[in-house]
Amino acid sequence: MSTLLSVRNLSMRFGGLTAIDDLSLEVPAGSITGIIGPNGAGKTTLFNCLTGFYKPTFGSLVLAHPTRGDLRLEALPSHRVARDAQVVRTFQNIRLFPKMTVLENLIVAQHNVLQRASKFSVAGLLALPGYRKAERDAVERAATWLERLQLTQYADHAAGALPYGIQRRIEIARALCVDPVLLCLDEPAAGLNPRESAELNALLTYLCGELGIAILLIEHDMSVVMNVSDHICVINYGRKIAEGTPAAVQNDPHVIKAYLGEDEEAGVMEESTS
Amino acid sequence: MSTVVFAAHGMTPAERLRDAGWIAFVAFILGVPLIGLTTVDVGGRLAVNTRFGLLAAAVAVAFGGRLALRWAFDRLAARKASRQRAGSAISRTQTIANVLGWIALGAAVALPIAFSDNRYVVDTATTVLIYVMLGWGLNVVVGLAGLLDLGYVAFYAVGAYAYALLSTQYGWSFWEALPVAGAIAAGFGILLGYPILRLRGDYLAIVTLGFGEIIRVILVNWTEFSGGPNGIGSIPRPSFFGLAFTRSAPEGGHSFASFFGLEFSAMHRLIFLYYLILVLALLTHAFVSRLRKLPVGRAWEALREDEIACKAMGMNTTHIKLSAFAIGAMLGGFAGVFFAARQGFVSPESFVFTESAIILAIVVLGGMGSQMGVVLAATLLVLIPEFGRNFAEYRMLLFGLAMVLIMVWRPGGLLAHREPTLRLAKAAGGEQ
Amino acid sequence: MAYALQQLINGLTLGAMYGLIAIGYTMVYGIIGMINFAHGDIFMVSAFIAVTAFTLLAAADVTSIPLALTFVLIVALFFTSAYGWAVERTAYRPLRGSTRLAPLISAIGMSIFLQNAVQLTQGARVKPIPPVIEGGVQLWSTPAFTVQIGWSQLLIIVTTVVLMIAFTWMITQTPFGRQQRACEQDRTMAALLGVNVDRTISLTFMLGAALAAVAGVMVTVYYGVVDFFIGFLAGIKAFTAAVLGGIGSLPGAMLGGLLIGLIESFWAAYLWAEYKDVATFGILCLVLMLRPSGLLGRPEVEKV
Question: Which family does it belong to (chain C) (predicted)?
Answer without folding.
Answer: Belongs to the binding-protein-dependent transport system permease family. LivHM subfamily.
